[in-house]
Design goal:
This protein is α/β, with parallel strands linked by helices and 312 residues long. It has 14 helices and seven strands.
């Protein structure tokens, strides 16, 4: 199976992960296994990598791509949000680094056949894990207008959320919305005619992102995972997260700031009663972003932000 993907900020991400020989690291979003291979090259001969992806195609690809490192790798078809259970099942109390790349792979966009892109005419699926029961088509064809508008507004930050939701409900009265092309056409026609051709991005971009987030519970998974990160890392272990839109980045930024806080008792308290301690520190004040050359070579990287924190 050919699995096309270009890893984002591969050198920067793995360098900031501070990989050392003999240690244990996690690639929680294997994708094309580009980051995983770089990690393995740095932690040999005794280091171990736990590779996780909820897309079966990514796991099948990783089994081939990482075959030279088979004795150093354990692969799991699962979500990174279940990492705590995964490492507990392996008898590992904590790891030395965790990397997440929260973007879609080129394979998912271009050749998975699951309707992630409005550029292709495919079934409106959008499940990263095809074992999930609810597809994007289910949401589009069964949710009421208010719920659709809420998804588009909250997850996609779409200004025309209400108009697009109304158009979807109107269209499905005649025939169900089953393909990515149908949904894309609805988004285009829902935009005011006077703005046609003047959009900075395609009118369907944000609603496709919103549906993908909803189908895969992406923000809920990220929240559940990141709150437990300090307990899963050894001292000086690092968390590296590459996000691609503001909703994800806010979650990562907010949690790192929370990990950095010490006492949160009201200022007037004579003595600390909260017992809160600083458990992690941010390694960079601002997120790391791709350089101009990478953006030119891989336009998908243009919105990427890498944030790094270290366990104290």
């Amino acid at each position: 199976m050919q699995y096309n993907h270009v890893s984002v900020m591969p050198a920067e991400a793995v360098d900031y992960l501070n990989c050392r020989p003999g240690k244990i690291y996690v690639d929680g979003t294997l994708g094309g296994a580009g980051h995983a291979r770089r990690i393995l090259e740095k932690i040999l001969p005794e280091g171990r990598l736990i590779g996780i992806d909820q897309d079966k195609d990514a796991i099948r690809h990783a089994e081939i791509a990482l075959k030279p490192f088979v004795s150093n790798v354990r692969l799991f078809h699962d979500s990174y949000s279940n990492l705590e259970d995964i490492i507990a099942g392996l008898g590992i109390p904590a790891v030395d680094g965790i990397l997440l790349d929260l973007g879609l792979s080129l394979h998912q966009l271009e050749s998975s056949g699951r309707g992630f892109s409005f550029k292709n005419n495919e079934p409106l699926d959008m499940r990263m894990n095809t074992d999930l029961k609810i597809t994007a088509s289910d949401i589009v064809n069964t949710s009421d207008e208010n719920d659709l508008a809420k998804i588009f507004k909250e997850y996609g930050e779409e200004r025309m959320a209400g108009r697009i939701a109304r158009q979807i409900v109107s269209t499905r009265k005649t025939k169900p919305v089953l393909t990515s092309r149908q949904l894309s056409d609805i988004a285009i026609h829902a935009y005011p005619a006077k703005k046609s051709g003047s959009h900075r991005i395609h009118p369907a971009t944000r609603i496709f992102m919103a549906l993908r987030i909803a189908v895969n519970s992406e923000l809920e998974r990220l929240e559940r995972f990141i709150s437990g990160v300090p307990d899963m890392l050894n001292p000086e272990g690092r968390l590296c997260v590459i996000s691609f839109h503001s909703l994800e980045d806010r979650i990562v930024k907010r949690n790192i700031k929370e990990f950095e806080k010490e006492c949160i008792c009201p200022p007037g308290f004579p003595k600390c009663v909260c017992n809160k301690q600083r458990v992690m520190k941010a390694i960079t004040k601002k997120p790391v972003t791709p350089n101009e050359q990478e953006v030119a070579d891989n336009p998908m990287s243009r919105s990427a932000k890498l944030r790094i924190a270290e366990k104290l």
